[in-house]
Amino acid sequence: MMTDCIHCDIAGRYSNPDTKISNTYDALWVGISAKIREEPLSETTNTGKLVKQIEAACGKPGYKTNLVKCPPVDKNGKLRYPNQAEIDCCFKNLLAEIAEVKPKVVILLGEKVCSAVE
Questions:
Q1: Taking the model in full, what pTM does it have?
Q2: 55 phi, psi to nearest 5 deg
């Protein structure tokens, strides 16, 4: 999926570039950005834990991704929110994932994700 990536200033930090997509997902979850060396919406995050609980209650896992695939970090190596240029560069990757997964529903997590998609 990431083979057609536009190389922005954070490209190359994508933590899971070989994810195989199955067309069997009813839901596609979209978070804001990758956590360093973690899968999208990892259970090590509060959001990832909540997503797992919701999926367990529904009895079916969803496809998890992020608006920005590579972890954006500041000059000190600390994770930060992606800037608009990074979001714009990576947006086509999200659209490609949606087209390939063909989910029944896309769940946007948070104001920044909703605003970017809007």
A1: 0.84
A2: -65, -40
